Amino acid sequence: MKAFIEKVFKMKKQKQKEILDEIIHTEVAVEAVIKEVKKETKKKEVKEVKEVKEVFAKPGHYFPDCNCFKCIRWRNQNA
After folding, report:
1. How far is CA 37 from the centre of its chain?
2. Phi and psi for 55 in degrees, rounded to 5?
3. pLDDT for position 18
4. What are phi and psi of 76, to 5 degrees?
């Protein structure tokens, strides 16, 4: 009877060790995936920051033939 009980406890300990090993392996894999995703998002953020253009508001005066720098800049952004 004692041998049977020891055998059962050994089996339980082995199963627990296997489960812990699986948990550790999955945690390592998840951390690796998280690092890769962070690197990719940083690269995308850098590209997005470079692509941001400044939007100029329409000048306050309404002369259709005006050639001041504000009007020219506003017309060129919409071209």
Report:
1. 5
2. -105, 125
3. 92
4. -70, -30
Supply the DSSP string of 16-78, one letter for each residue.
HHHHHHHHHHHHHHHHHHHHHHHHHHHHHHHHHHHH----PPPPS---TT--SHHHHHHHHHH
Nearest Cα to Cα of residue 71 among 60, 59, 55: 59
On the question of pLDDT at 49 being above 70, the answer is: no
Whole-model pTM?
0.42
pLDDT, tens digit, for every residue of 4-23? 888 888 999 999 999 999 99
User: In sequence order, what are the residues at sequence separation of 6 or more whose Cβ sits closer than 8 angstroms to the Cβ of residue 40?
Assistant: none
In the chain, where the domains are located: 2-78
Distance (Å, whole) CA 44 – CA 47: 5
